[in-house]
Design brief:
- By secondary structure, the chain is mainly α.
- The protein contains three helices and no strands.
- The chain is elongated and about 60 Å long.
- The chain starts with 15 loop residues before the first helix and ends with a helix.
- 0% of the residues are buried.
Length: 69
Amino acid sequence: MNDPEKMPPAGKGDWEGLRELDRALAEDRLTSYTWKKTWADPWGRLKLITIFVGLAAFVTFVVVQDVIL
């Protein structure tokens, strides 16, 4: 999983967040990185929950309207 060839060299002036992002890109796990960082942020978590609740409400509305009509 941690292939030494894919890991960037550690420098003295590196920023930890950018090094983590660079490793995520090198290991092709950017989506997982993005979801984890968004879920860790309280406002990001609220946005995700709001989007998924809204999406579920819309799907429910469409299904109920389709059954009624």
